[in-house]
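Re-running the complex after MR caught last week's input typo. The corrected sequence lines follow. Everything else is unchanged.
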Amino acid sequence: MPFATGRRRLPAPLLLLAPIVLFLLFFFVAPFALNFGVSLQAGRPGGVVGGGFSPRHYAKLVTDPYYLKVIGQTFALGFVCTFLSFLLGYPCAYFIARTRSSWKGVMMFVVIAPLLTSIIMRSYGWILILGRTGFVNVVLQALGLTSEPLDLIYNWVGVVIAITHVLLPFMILSVASVIEGIHESLEESAMILGADRWRTFRRVTFPLSLEGVATGAVIVFMLTIGSFVTVLLVGGEKTMVMGVLIYQQIAITFDRAFASALGSVLLLIALFLLYLQARWLQVRGRRAA
Amino acid sequence: MRPGWLERIGLPVYTAALFAFLALPMLIVVAVSFNAGEFVHFPPRGFSLRWFRHVFEGANFGPAILNSLELAVLSTLGSLLLGIPAALALVRHAVPFRDAIQAFLLSPLSLPLIVFGVALLFFAGAIGLQLSFIGLLAGHIVITVPYVLRTVVAVYGALDRQLEEAALILGADELTCFRRITLPLIKPGIIAGSIFAFLTSFDNVPVSIFLTKTDTMTLPVAILSYLVYSFDPSVAAVSSLQVLFAVAVLLLLERTYGLGQVSSMGGQ
Amino acid sequence: MADVELRRVTKTFGRVRAMDAIDLEVQKGEFLSLLGPSGSGKTTTLRVIAGLVEPAAGDVLIGGRLVTHLPVYRRNLGMVFQNYALFPHLTVFENVAFGLEMRKLGTTETRRRVEEALALVRLPGFEARFPHQLSGGQRQRVALARAIVVRPTVLLLDEPLGALDKKLRESMQVELKVLQRSLGITTIFVTHDQEEALTLSDRIAVMNDGRVEQLDTPVEIYERPRTRFVSEFIGASNFLEGEADGATAALATVRTAAGLTVTVPAALVGPVGGRVTLSVRPEKITLHATPPLGTPNVFRATVENVVYLGTSTHYYVRTDAGERLVAYEQNVTVHGGHQLHRPGDAVYVHWGPESTLRVSP
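Corrected-run output:
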């Protein structure tokens, strides 16, 4: 029987990939490259870019104790929030992954829902909750537990709470999806062999779930050290991190070259983490094969 | 083996508490948006819709809302145009360095956006775009396209290859096969990716804050500047409107596709 | 003229030779099975004919036409996949009509043909249903209807009955055979189930390691396997290795390492001293309480294991010489659970020389 359709092939894969790759190379990679270039310029008065090669911005960064402190604080925040989101998120992830309840879909949705709301809304919400006349303080004072309002905001306490809240869903989703992939028969075999539930968890489930923990940890850490809006709204003078510092350099101090230097350092760290993650996954993949 | 108390009571209770923690800020904000008074109070005093009116009148977030909508829609469209073909190529063809390319295309999800915002500001200036809408749009497409790519790759990767093979054997050439078989079956992935793309663009601060000017101001940037000098509940009201919008869209999709599909794709 | 022809077709995946210079001819209207273990290359062969895989070397001809590089959608074939590959978003009608739609057939004609096809597979009235509403057997039949409604030159089936349970599979085998006979479509059927191949095929191509070891009718494949692999893969075999001992006009003897002297047709063996691998099918061996007289190939043995299978009993015996053999006896005289022989019993095994086969090792 003759065919009516002609020979219509889809474009070759390279042609399908070209637009997005070129687009990202131009609007994503090139700006970063330019940014790095700017950071190596001495800078002219008034924040204008130019003035010849000079590493002085990086020098300023590594010699000034204030900036070193900011970098340190950024990292410390990263570690604290990552650890907290792991501690708080893991049990929840385990529960959701293993539950047979018909509410499982709803639970997943509750975890994802915050990600669909505005980050400003979430930060604003924490201001309302943690502020001096906010929800927590009002309740504590009404219950007679405190006589004076607690300082829970515009300091590290508020920042840690707000950031952990924002990033918790990432950790939960990452861990839950890995645990779901651990076949129940593995845990059942361990139990038949005599391991009680805690032992089974410690020796079988937890080690197998580490991949999800690692992925989640990398995401949370990277998003924390790059955090800007949340710290700006919920933090104060004492809680300077690199993201806010970069913003200040552009919007207030107009020291563009220094902002680029800060940004390049942050970017480098993030790229390094991504590289580590890729290598770790590669090693695991080879070991599993 | 009977699950112990930890699993039957401890974990569910803990999870419920954690869910409450996750939902708390949003609930508080929505509650506050109905506040009758001038300032933000706890507990909220009275019930009023005045702040919702204020959003469009006094605070005048209306133009910003429109800007954000326009930007989000265009970014999503751009992401679909760039992302869907790429997903097809990555899943079905043995592209050299496929994993590396995919990691590269998804990298805007993980890299610090504040640095990107600054970098794009310099770049836009360097190539003459300055603070134009095109530069802003380009930046938004960069950060939204990974969402589309990720979900379409996930859905398309899970699609049984033999369905396309069956179509080919039955006489459909590659374009017809894509149109009649592939596209309808990857629609859930496209929808999910579009939602994430849209919301990411709508809510973005680090890129918008440097590349907007007065007439292209987006809602998040407008809210931030508003918060500098005024702390009234109109911020809560406009946030509540955003939630309402998101819920409406999601309900619409639940009707058509089922929530489980979208949720399962959010995690990848 | 052969309807499908493969000439020295080769295909490698990485370091694996899925197809090793395969020559194959499928006659018009015949039902040919590609039979072999997983990894033998049978599915690859089918996919090369379909055009889903391009061969590294060699030619593919369909209906006398060279199609090696012709795209899949121009070959006018029908194919049923192992998991049916029904389009989940289309109704049964739309699924079956798909191929006709590609051929731009009119609405009336399409409707007529679809109804005809569904009637042929005994699913009339199922047009409006969706695949997820059907049982496995029903999906399989829709897949079949979809493949044949376009009147393909060749019908390709990739282990289509594998997902069905035993009873359903057996009834589908009969239906499939009847359908194929009535339509007269050249059919190529891939399976790893030798019973299925024996039941359905006009001819079987036994494949191993990318090569066709034997291409013959089911009877020939079973009764006269040419290689050790074929005789092992199809049915069970007892193998005896030895040296040609002596010969008369009609008969010859082979002496095994254990010292057993086996009498075989003279045509089977070569010169004295040559190494020979013999094969005897278990159902050709009989067990006797007392040695039958006047016939060669009677050996004393001890019963080691007995397996009762309802229609037959399998006896695992060990000859005095030390050779292990399996014998199948039909349960003609066994009633009410008592067995003819029990483990530990001494028996005499016997088979006629003409039941012996020689296989290349």
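None of the earlier attempt is carried over here. Chain A has twelve helices and no strands. The first helix of chain A runs from residue 13 to 39.
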